[in-house]
Write a structure and sequence with these properties.
mainly alpha
């Protein structure tokens, strides 16, 4: 089952999405990739069942999307404050 230290997968997903963006992925597709990667991690890394893996993967992918957009918004806010 999902343990609290497994939440470290979220920054891994964020980093993988960033690598894809550097390789040419359009920014508008990054949330979809994050959710897809989250589902893959959920099914293959955390899976005790497919349904549970997909649910955990959705949470991971959506969390990674939120982490990226939240940190991006904070960085943009700091630049405008200067």
């Amino acid at each position: 089952m999902f343990e609290i230290y497994d939440i470290a997968v979220v920054p891994v997903i964020t980093g993988l999405v960033q690598l894809f963006k550097m390789a040419g992925l359009k920014t508008k597709y990054s949330p979809f990739l994050a959710v897809l990667l989250g589902i893959l991690f959920g099914v293959f890394y955390f899976s005790s069942s497919i349904k549970e893996g997909v649910l955990v993967g959705l949470v991971l992918g959506l969390s990674a999307s939120g982490l990226y957009s939240g940190s991006k918004n904070v960085m943009e806010k700091e630049k405008t404050d200067e």
